User: Fold these one by one.
Assistant:
Number 1:
Amino acid sequence: MKTPDFTASCPIPISQYPHVVLAHGGGGKLMHQLIGKMFLEAFRNPLLETKHDAAVMELTGNKIAFTTDSYVVRPLFFPGGDIGSMAVHGTVNDLAMAGARPLYLSSAFIIEEGLPMETLWRVVCSMRDAAKKCGVQIVTGDTKVVDKGKGDGVFINTAGVGIVEHEQKIAPQNVRAGDVVLVNGDVGRHGMAIMAVREGLEFESQIESDSAPVHEAVLDLLKAGIEIHCMRDLTRGGLTSALNEISEAADLTMLVEEKLIPVREDVHAACEMLGLDPFQVACEGRFAAFIPERDAGRTLEILRARPNGADACVIGRASGESPAKVLLKSAIGVQRILDMASGEQLPRIC
Amino acid sequence: MKFLDEYRDAGLAEQFARELHRVTTRPWKIMEVCGGQTHAIVKFGIDELLPKQIELIHGPGCPVCVTPLEMIDKALEIAARPNVVFTSFGDMLRVPGSSGTGILPVPGALRHERSCVSFADADRQDACPTMGSATDLLSVKANGGDVRIVYSPLDAVKLAEQNPAKEVVFFGVGFETTAPATAMAVYQAAQKKLGNFSMLISHVLVPSAIEALMSSPNCRVQGFLAAGHVCTVMGFEEYFPLAAKYRVPIVVTGFEPLDILQGVLMTVRQLESGRAEVENQYSRSVCREGNRPAQELIKKIFKVVPRKWRGIGEIPQSGLGLRAEFAAFDAEKKFGVAETRVEESSECMSGLVLQGQIKPHECPAFGVKCTPEHPLGAPMVSGEGACAAYYRYRRQPVKI
């Protein structure tokens, strides 16, 4: 029987290159082998296969949405996701927040010398699967390798292009006093999943990241004719930062109720233990939507019908109270300011 | 969440509040000792449910806040040394040392490098708009120092075992609550004969702080909510002499909204009826004698020493230091960091805040020159610090 040249999992001959070496980013044969056998193979599509310096695409309509994001996460693989799927979901979700239909992504890898080739392949496969699930194509890319110790395994940047097929103005400035604020599910899960792995915290159940694409939920809302005034994904800084950003840009006060904001029990417990605020913890598949009250019922129906959307709910409303701020009605019924964290949340002493 | 939501019930909170309104006939000033309680009070808005006559004074029980500047400077100096892995609880990382607060050490005192490169000229048009001069452990880390957050001092011991060629230092701060874990780390390090592990210790004790506050002529406090977690370890026998000597009610209190409301109610009932007793609201965690094995461990490793408290000054018999037989684990000795004397910023009134003489927002620097991003004093840094709690939950937002 003929011994296959490549292992079943990784298309690069492991016997020769079990780890990424600097030459894999050097522009020579090794780099072309890596690109050809790994990236082209996994992301295969006609635009990428032109191997041109830039992908040339035809887009219908005259409005496009364009965004970019970089992904630096440690560990690279965590319960519920990995850096590859996150790099697709995150950029797809950014496009979705503009109400766009995501179509094309770029993918730039900055790889640390010495990264096991098998690890890179797992990341690439995860990106491939996530892109397929999201209905987007990875049409252009870049590969750089940096010296050992100058990276954290792999960093990924993805940019995304989507088309805007609706006539709505979705922007913070479009939020109106009286709009309801909704979230599409429980908050804080992604950040705590990462923290639990990173710090070796063990709980009875494993906390899984909420990393997921949300564009289909958004496109469903638009299709149903829901008037969406604004949306914001709850990534770094979590719900708190999103609400503060919209409040400031819209010059409106946001009043939300602690009791209405869904936080899973294990996430809540982990936050209590570490002295963190779940409302400040990052999510990767959650967004807040600002919608006229009359559309709230239908919006919830649509969001709850999506996978992982069962906990979608109204958490508060926008008001014209001046000066603009974010107020939280605490569990015991007293109002207080909900402020952004100063920097990274730091676990407290006791 | 089980065992938590029960203590955050709005209906029960209102019942407690109503009862407080019913029994309160005169103005009373009650100090919650612990920073965790201050945080809960401000976060949940508990004080807004109280009758106007009851004033809560925020005590000195935030370990980050009372750790003296000199100790922060020592931590920064040790952490910046090559071959050192400096480990700490998370919230000590952002506390600025003397050079970060614009305070200069007094002549002859130790200086450590400023963390920011000084290419930015303030007069230059294109000076970097986000460059500050904060010098804290995070900046030491950014400049290449190996500074790591740990959740337990025992993790630092593990690090020392895993990195025999490095010096692993743990910043041992906190009250009696964290002392058993710190003591256990020293104990384990001694058992394992780890020559590369040491601790920078700034442990403090609650009863001596209460004593110092009560004996001050400016003291306004008429009753205390004692810190539930400290008493979980230490029990509450040591509070009986204090309650008797100063004729103050002391109620051992937990940290959830209903705990605090009940603790206040128990204190007010004592005050209204002229009693001055030690009572235990937090009985689901605290018993009279406390956790004996933990106490024995503390006694085995530590001796009671005088300590300087930031904002209050030196209090006799108010801290813990390593016993002579564990002196090898004393980072101050090991690294030979010099004794320093640092003057606090004259603009920062955190000393008065920590003694309950003023409320955080009564300080002119509050929210203006002093914010969590640019703290002048430690109570603005830690999440449990009274100033940070007020800034975070109470201030009117300022456009940045």
Note: DSSP finds 15 helices and eleven strands in chain B.
Number 2:
Amino acid sequence: MNFSVPDLVFYAVALVTLATAVYAVTSRNIVRAVFSLLGTFFGMALLYGLLAADFVAVIQVLVYVGGILVLLLFAVMLTGNIETAQHSNRSAGLWLGALTGLSLLALLLPLAIKAPWQQSGVGEYAQTTASIGTALLSNALLPFEVISIVLLGIVIGAVVIARHRRVEDTEAGK
Amino acid sequence: MIQVGLEHFLVIGTLLFALGVVCVITRRNAVAILIGIELILNASGVNLIAFSHYNDRAVEGSVFVLFVIVLAAAEAAVALALILAIKRRLRTIDVDRISSLRG
């Protein structure tokens, strides 16, 4: 068994990604779980980089680490009792969860390893940004436009849902 | 070149997906359930990128993952708004205690 450097990088990144994901799932402290997710998202970005998807790796860091993780932290800080953060992440149904997880793994892992997936080689390395831009404005133009409308709706909807209504508005204002 | 094959990345995707499902099932904090959903979406992303990479670096995988990331961000924003509204109205985000609609 002789490992090349990319192999070792892959195994190290995979270990970090899975270990932080396990901690995020099992931690009883919700703040620690969210911060542990930082390692998972960075690990995913490195995996994308190993798969030569450079643009997606950068977007993963920008959106997940810079956006979604901060949103999760806001949610934790605005809703949790930080003083009692030790047990802020109650869990229940552990047996059901373990049973479901193990049966999922028993079902999917042999499929992932043994199935004859279509593979036609990795081809030449090339930067993906230009081809992604071309695809977004040609083949994927309709989903690109639809998702911009979805984002507009999301922004308006999130503001409406989270808006602080006064009591007289909801009781007498209707 | 990297010697690890498609199956290695599929195994990582499978493990992340199972972890996310377990998180959604066992956690009772709404934010933690959101974490599980993000793990599931990330698992789908690594599968898509791996398949496209081992099929002549098709660009469609990257495009799909970009859409998944955008929808994940949108879902996180709406979920945060919902969690804040629920917290303000019911004083808890424990999903077992949110039972106002129970007859």
Note: Residues 19 and 63 of chain B are 25 Å apart (CA to CA).
Number 3:
Amino acid sequence: MKSSADYARYDDEKLISLIAQLQTEALDQLYDRYNRPIFSLALMIVGDRATAEEITLDVFMRVWQKAGSYRADQGRVSTWLTHIARHHAIDVLRRRAVRPDHHALSLNEITPGVPLPAQNPGELAEHSLRRERIRAAIARLPADQRQALRLAYFGGYTQTEIAAALKQPLGTIKTRIKLALQKLRDFLRDEQEPEDKSAQALNTYNMSEED
Amino acid sequence: MFDETHVLDLLPAYALGSLDTDEANRVKEHLLSCWICRAESSAFQDVAEQLSFAAPVAAPSLDLKDRLFQRVQSVRPQPHVPTKAARRPWLERLLPVWGLVSLGLIIALAAFTLSLWQRLNQLEFVTAPGGMRAIPLSAADAASGATGFVIVSGDGDNGALVVDGLPPLDADRQYQLWLIRAGERTSGAVFSTDEKNYGGTRIKVAGSLLEYSAVDVTIEPAGGSHQPTGAVVLAGPLFNP
């Protein structure tokens, strides 16, 4: 019989395969691993905790019901989860036909990450690393590109809607979004080597913990 | 070499989901046949996923996990679907279903040889003359041994589903096909299988099937559901999301 420690050692894809076999312990572990990133993303988009919690529940219920249809060759588990959460949250926004006031905030005004208790140290480190990498990359973008990026990704606006909201030519917005994502890709690529070194260090840490 | 038909400039906004519908459709169609743009698109999709981690760290209520497992207990997926009965060759089983679709589909499909069908199990999809595609589906754990194909006309306006190895359900339940786009599911058909575990149906959906990235088949109450509630028995990719 598997223990909770066994499930904690499984990678995401293994957990999904076990969830497809209706193993609730695997869902429990996946929830522990991803409830915060999913909830944080949903909260960032919809702006209120109650709705963000409903979205989080829906994401994990979708996983429970659809784990059998997950295909690793189409993307990582984390990509699948964030894709579901983001689209669900944006659908909520569109049904409301209003966007939360917090979308007026700039991405570089996001408060620093607060370490939260009761999370696996390895997962905490990985999520923290990803968060700091993307924040550092976003911070290097010009303000107008950050604004367009924020409205597109967290606001769910189309380029045409962004142009109308900001009273800017559509071509200007298209250029800002294109440049923003191209720069982010380049920045993250530049950071890849340090991340690889961190991953190696993390693996070394985990191996020493198992010993 | 790049040519003017590439959509590289649109890929960043496509990854963010911020293109207008016409442009998004143009990108999707182009990605079907262009590996250069597919590779670029994949890179931008990775960047978009990273953006989700930029959200401020927050934790849900401590009781949220309890609420999740209460729901899990109330909506427990249906486990394994038993399979049985001998199976006929694919070509023999497909012919009656094609009759449901359209004369055009039948004529085009008739050009397929048995060897071509045998190749389908190893290929992502096969494109026939006229642009019609046949896309194989994979069995989920709940229905090991089941197989199926989604057949889509060249313009994406017509499609059919054929399945094999799915046993007939009791009177209260039917199979339902779901078309998946941006993580959302739309019903494409509700159908039953016969005593030889074979079934087929025309896919009915507003718009083009080229807009959908994947399909799956679930077991639902007779008449179908608004959203899937039962176990997945078949699933597969359609076109690039």
Note: Chain B has seven helices and nine strands.
